[in-house]
Design goal:
- The chain has about 375 residues and is an alpha/beta fold.
- The protein has one domain: TIM Barrel (Alpha-Beta Barrel), CATH 3.20.20.
- The protein contains 17 helices and ten strands.
- The protein has an eight-stranded parallel β-sheet, with helices on both faces. The chain has a two-stranded antiparallel ribbon with strand order 7-8.
- Strand 2, helix 7 and strand 3 form a beta-alpha-beta unit.
- Keywords: Hydrolase, Metal-binding, Nucleotide metabolism, Zinc.
C-alpha cells in the first residue's frame, strides 16, 4: 500500500470541510485595493497587494482579540455596495474551491455593511447572489461542485441580535444555514442575546456562538447552558476544565463537569489554529490544545477563521497540524468527517458528501 506524501500540493487535493470562515476576513489583497479605489476609501495602510497582505498579517499578530479585530475596519469599509459584496462572496467561493474545500459555511455580519445606505435585505441578497455566482463559476470552470452556505452573524457588542436572527430565518431557504454572534467576548457575554437564541430555537434554526477564545469557561458555559449553542466558535479555553495525567498523558486525564458535557454531547469545536495563536488564545501551534482535545475524543474541526489576516488556507492549517503533531491522512479524514457531521446541512446531504466525496477522496490519498 502506497501512501501519498503529505505536503501542501497533496493537501490541496484532499476534500475539506470548513465551518468557521469570515467573509470580511478573507478578501484578496488586490480586491481590497480595487474596492477602495472604487468607493474612494483612502485609509488603507499600503498601496500594493503584497505590502497590504503583509500588513494585515502583521497587524493581526497582536496577541489580543480586540486589536486583531481592528484590522477588519479596512475590509468592512470597502464592502458597502451590492457590487462589492457580490464580488467578495464570489471570489471567496472560487478561492475555497481552488484549495479543495467541498463544503463551507461562511459567516458575515450584515449590520456592518449599511454605511452607504443599503438595508439588511439588500446586503443579504447581494452577498447570497455572489455565493451562488461563485458556485456556478467553479462548476463551469472546473466541473467540480462546492457547497457554500451562509452564517448570518450579529455583533455581540451591539443590540441588533434579535433582528439579525430574524434575518437568518427569513433567508434560510436562500442559502443561509444558521446564525452566530461574534466580536469581543470580554464584557459581552452571549446571555445578553437570549431573546435571539430563544427565537431561533422556536424556529428550529441552527446557531453557533463565538466562545472560549479570548474569554474562559464562563463564556463557554453560557453559550451551551443558557443559549443552547449547536457548536462553539473556537472553544479552545475548554482546556481550562481539563487536567491531563502525569507528564501530559491522556489516559488519566480528568475532565470537569463542563468539559465532560461538551464531549458527551459531541458539541463541535470550531478550532482555528493560526488565528488562535494570533489572538493569544494559544501561545503557538505546538502549544495549541488541538491535539490534546483530539486525543481526548472531543469533536474537533480544522478551520481558517480569517484567511487574509492569518495569510492561510485550509490546506496550510492542515499542514501545520501535520508538521506539529505528526498526523497522517486518516487523522485528517477524521477531522474532515467531524466537520461534515457538524455542518448545518440536512442529514441526508451530509451523509452523501461523506460517503461520495470525502471518503473516496481520502481513500485515493491513503492508498
Amino acid at each position: 500500500m502506497t501512501h501519498t506524501p503529505i505536503n501542501l500540493a497533496s493537501l490541496r487535493l484532499a476534500p475539506k470541510v470548513l465551518l468557521h470562515d469570515h467573509l470580511d476576513g478573507g478578501l484578496r489583497p488586490q480586491t481590497v485595493l480595487d474596492l477602495a479605489r472604487d468607493c474612494g476609501y483612502t485609509d488603507l495602510p499600503a498601496d500594493n497587494p503584497e505590502e497590504l497582505r503583509v500588513w494585515f498579517r502583521d497587524a493581526a499578530d497582536s496577541g489580543s482579540l480586540e486589536l486583531y479585530l481592528q484590522t477588519f475596519g479596512h475590509t468592512v469599509a470597502v464592502m458597502q455596495t451590492p457590487a462589492a459584496l457580490a464580488r467578495v462572496a464570489r471570489e471567496c467561493v472560487e478561492d475555497l474551491a481552488a484549495d479543495g474545500v467541498v463544503y463551507a459555511e461562511v459567516r458575515f455580519a450584515p449590520e456592518q455593511h449599511l454605511d452607504a445606505g443599503l438595508n439588511l435585505d439588500a446586503v443579504m441578497e447581494s452577498t447570497l447572489s455572489g455565493f451562488a455566482e461563485g458556485v456556478r463559476a467553479v462548476r463551469d470552470q472546473s466541473g467540480h461542485d462546492i457547497v457554500v452556505r451562509c452564517l448570518v452573524t450579529a455583533m455581540r457588542h451591539a443590540a441588533r441580535s434579535r433582528e439579525i436572527a430574524e434575518l437568518a430565518v427569513k433567508y434560510r431557504h436562500d442559502g443561509v444555514c444558521g446564525f452566530d454572534i461574534a466580536g469581543a467576548e470580554a464584557g459581552f457575554p452571549p446571555s445578553r442575546h437570549l431573546d435571539a437564541f430563544e427565537f431561533l430555537q422556536k424556529e428550529n434554526a441552527h446557531f453557533t456562538i463565538h466562545a472560549g477564545e479570548a474569554f474562559g469557561l464562563p463564556s463557554i458555559h453560557e453559550a451551551v447552558a443558557f443559549c443552547g449553542a449547536d457548536r462553539l466558535g473556537h472553544g479552545v479555553r475548554i482546556m481550562d476544565d481539563i487536567e491531563l495525567g502525569p507528564e501530559g498523558t491522556f489516559g488519566e486525564a480528568k475532565l470537569g463537569l463542563l468539559a465532560n458535557y461538551i464531549r458527551d454531547k459531541r458539541i463541535p469545536l470550531e478550532l482555528c489554529p493560526s488565528s488562535n495563536v494570533q489572538t493569544g488564545a494559544a501561545a503557538s501551534i505546538a502549544e495549541h490544545p488541538f491535539n490534546q482535545l483530539a486525543q481526548l475524543q472531543f469533536r474537533v474541526t480544522v478551520n481558517t477563521d480569517n484567511r487574509l489576516m492569518s495569510h492561510t488556507t485550509m490546506s496550510e492549517e492542515m499542514l501545520k497540524l501535520v508538521e506539529t503533531f505528526g498526523y497522517g491522512w486518516s487523522d485528517l479524514e477524521r477531522f474532515t468527517i467531524n466537520a461534515m457531521k457538524s455542518a448545518f446541512y440536512s442529514f441526508d446531504k451530509r451523509l452523501a458528501i461523506i460517503d461520495e466525496v470525502i471518503k473516496p477522496g481520502y481513500a485515493v490519498l491513503i492508498g
